[in-house]
Write a structure and sequence with these properties.
The complex is a heterodimer of chains A (about 200) and B (about 280). Chain A is α/β, with parallel strands linked by helices. Chain A contains 7 helices and 9 strands, in the order H-E-H-E-H-E-E-E-E-H-E-H-E-H-E-H. The model of chain A has no long low-confidence stretch (mean pLDDT about 95). The longest helix of chain B has 15 residues. Classes of the chains: A alpha/beta (about 200), B alpha/beta (about 280).
Chain lengths: ~200, ~280
């Protein structure tokens, strides 16, 4: 209803769809994974903060409910359309110009590994305006700088409305940096991703 | 430690051509070849050095050309030295149940931790072998390109705070007692017990330019391949293949796999999740 034509056009044309989320983002990410169609002609990359050594049920839960193929990233994996990629715990995810992922174990950024900033910045350099990125709920400031980098590189950048985020800090930080093209309510994010 | 580096990479972004220029310069002047390093990580590390040292691109080139001491610093920054004791507890568990019984049949067990950084993995392996009752017949080599971290590894003193933070790994790996049992603590300094140090040796080895130096029953090279392009990974797989005894084991990081078809035929996967392989043929 409220979505303008520009955002829908950009959604249709983007090749790389990025999500950054921390505390309070799991439920929405789960719903997003569930609704994305099997035929989506984009590579979807999810960077979600999680506990080190936490033997994660996230992939299993996501994979069981996803219509797209879903995969936790291994080093040098080729980035393919129609696949959802999850950043592994305890690694940063980077994009190579050759179209592969590269992993990195260097220091945590904002106490986070994977760091949303690092992946977003790398996507900005490798893919520029081919990206669309959505930053969701979280209790720290990871992702804000990276989102700004994406915006400056011509990507479409979206932030979840802080009032809808369980933890508004992360979206708020991005808004403070003026990193967002759009601030969307949770319902609008879902509506956009369901638009054919 | 984590927070202060948070702006890394954001201050200055290097162009791809500038990265290539730096690679060429380092190769010519210092003989270190970074050309087959994964570009995305390398670019990040280079930007980080410029930020930490407050150098412009031209300052960095100048320092690399004219200040011999700077290169050691540079090397330290560019190679990632993040490691833990018992990193990936499930790996150590798999090693214990799937590999150690096999190793125990050898007269002597020589292990190589390639890219050992400050030695945490070497001492983790030493503890594992001790608990398996194989300490007396095992010997562990740790190698790295970085002489500064090797010095730390030889000394074997870690911050007590760090050691305590690895205690969870230790527990999850199913080891007996607690990790701190293997250390003597004084204030914040935790020193690894000397009997664990006895059968270890740390030395400089460059995986890119150095060759076979011994024959091993097990080689562990975890979270090193992620920094290399696949063709360089293949070159190093060849070095590992030649350095392993028949049926010797190769351990890669939990997100690293053998990509090359040639080497997929030369190594049999023992545990695909933990990326533990065994050499086939001779």
């Amino acid at each position: 209803m409220g979505l303008d034509k520009n955002i829908i056009d950009r959604w249709h044309s983007c090749e790389i769809l990025l999500f950054g989320g921390s505390a309070g983002s799991f439920k929405l990410l789960f719903n997003i994974v569930k609704l994305l169609p099997a035929t989506l002609n984009k590579a979807v990359i999810i960077v979600m903060h999680r506990k080190r050594n936490f033997v994660s049920e996230v992939e299993k839960l996501f994979a069981q409910n996803s219509r797209m193929s879903l995969h936790e990233i291994d080093d040098k994996d080729k980035i393919k359309q129609g696949t959802i990629y999850i950043a592994p715990a305890n690694y940063h995810v980077l994009f190579e110009a050759s179209g592969n992922f590269a992993l990195d174990v260097s220091d945590a950024v904002w106490y986070s590994k994977p760091s949303i900033d690092i992946t977003f910045e790398s996507a900005a350099e490798a893919y520029g305006d081919k990206c669309m990125a959505i930053l969701l709920s979280g209790a720290n400031q990871d992702g804000a700088e990276g989102l700004l980098k994406l915006r400056n590189a011509g990507s479409l950048t979206i932030v979840q409305h802080p009032d809808d985020a369980e933890m508004p800090e992360m979206p708020t930080q991005a808004l403070n940096l003026n990193a967002a093209d759009y601030v969307l309510r949770t319902s609008e994010i879902l509506e956009l991703l369901e638009t054919d | 430690m984590a927070g202060e580096l948070s702006m890394s990479g954001f201050s200055q972004s290097l162009a791809t051509e500038q990265v290539t220029e730096l690679i060429d310069l380092v190769k010519k002047v210092h003989g270190f070849d970074f050309s087959d390093y994964s570009k995305a990580s390398l670019k990040r590390r280079l930007s980080r050095i410029m930020m930490v040292k407050k150098l412009s691109f031209y300052d960095l080139k100048h320092a690399l050309l004219n200040s011999p001491d700077f290169f050691q610093d540079f090397l330290e920054e560019i190679t990632v030295n993040v490691t833990e004791m018992f990193r990936d507890p499930s790996f150590y568990k798999a090693l214990n149940t799937q590999v150690v019984p096999y190793l125990s049949t050898y007269q002597h067990i020589k292990m190589w931790s390639a890219g050992c950084s400050s030695g945490e993995e070497v001492y983790s392996l030493a503890i594992l072998m001790e608990q398996a009752g194989l300490k007396d017949k095992s010997f562990i080599y740790g190698t790295d390109v970085n002489t500064v971290v090797l010095k730390e590894a030889r000394v074997g003193i870690y911050s007590y705070r760090n050691i305590k933070s690895y205690a969870e790994n230790y527990q999850m790996a199913g080891m007996k007692g607690t990790l701190t049992d293997h250390f003597t603590t004084l204030y914040d300094a935790a020193t690894i017990h000397s009997e664990l140090k006895a059968n270890t040796l740390f030395s400089v080895h460059n995986l890119i330019s150095d060759t076979v130096f011994n024959e091993f029953q097990l080689i562990s090279c975890r979270n090193v391949f992620i920094y290399f392009e696949t063709q360089l990974q293949d070159k190093i797989l060849d070095l590992f293949y030649k350095s392993l005894c028949p049926h010797g084991f190769l351990c890669l990081g939990s997100k690293e796999t053998i990509r090359s078809e040639t080497f997929k035929k030369k190594f049999k996967a023992i545990n695909l999740k933990e990326n533990i392989y065994q050499k086939i043929g001779s």
